[in-house]
Amino acid sequence: MASLGLTILTVLIVIGLLLFYAGIYADFIRPRAVQVQLLGLQFTLFGIVLVLAFDDSIGYGVTIGLMGLLTGVVGSLQDGEKPAPREADR
Hints:
This protein is mainly alpha-helical. It is built from three helices and no strands. The protein has one domain. The chain has helices spanning 2-25, 33-53, 58-77. The longest helix is centred in the first third of the chain and has 24 residues, at 2-25. The N and C termini lie far apart (65 Å).
């Protein structure tokens, strides 16, 4: 029964991350880079907890952990706000 629950949880996390990225790319939400990195960190830590808590959930934990790691990397590569040009640069 735990396998069914973990499967549903993994699918819901994948759907949630896809909606999150769709919102970013459609410009509905504008999270800062730190917020995206923290979301990735939370998913990575949750994947580690799944690996350590359940004996048969190594695949689920690694999958969620990798999604979190990729989310954190994407957050690190996001462009920050561009600074306004200075008077001397014009």
